[in-house]
Protein: Membrane protein
Organism: Faecalimonas umbilicata
Amino acid sequence: MKETIMKKYRLLNRIMNRISENHTGAYAAQSAFFIVLSMIPFIMLLLALVQYTPVTKADVIRAVTHVLPKTIYPMIVSIVNQVYNQSQAMISLTGLVAIWSAGRGVLAMSAGLNSVYGSKETRNYIYLRLRAAFYTVLFIIAIVLSLVILGFGDRLSIFIVNHYPFMKGIIDLIINIRAVASIVVLTVFSMTIYHFLPNKKTKFIRQFPGAFLTAIGWAAASYIFSAYVNIFTGFSTMYGSMTTIMLIMLWLYACMYIMLLGGEVNEMLAEDFFTSM
């Protein structure tokens, strides 16, 4: 019993030392900050594209106010109004430039994973920036999946069924399997990030343990975030109009931290297990 406790203590101490040495918190904070910067331009781009469909501004606002909690939807409604009142070409150009610039969030994550995996960055800077812009879009898609489907899926399903009753069977099926499906998608996404972002050759399948833990962690963080914004109001009193941004920043920081921890798990397994195979 005592030996088991000591083993767990040594393992925990080793993990904490790695987290400190690799500056996990700092890289997670950088990633979260710059990805938040890229989220609004990305939403603007999506809304600019929506204008080419039969969906109207009223439809978008109605969906936002029904699906998202009161803490978040004022910001989204403001973005919707700006997009529909400005030039689509200018919005698209601004969005693309902003996403390119905000690719620094992915660069920060790449630097963090390089630190975790013990590798140095030697790749061309232009290549890294182009790749970062691409992965920024992937990150935002994964973030939206986590937040909307896992966090606010019930609100979304009620809204869709109320407006399109014939889809009830399909929506019920999606809601029933959403947790499993989201875990699978997030696991594959995380494996892709661990395999391609760091400047180190790794086998794709060996990224599964950390990727699976990351997917579970993201799902848990999304549920906690959803419960908090739906139940508590103290945060709104403290930060006022900045509440939405602060909540998203905290949630995203937790997600980025969890992703870097998943990388730590993969690297520790590579050192202790895979090297002996």
The mean pLDDT is 77. The radius of gyration is 20 Å. The chain has one domain: 21-270. The first helix runs from residue 2 to 21.
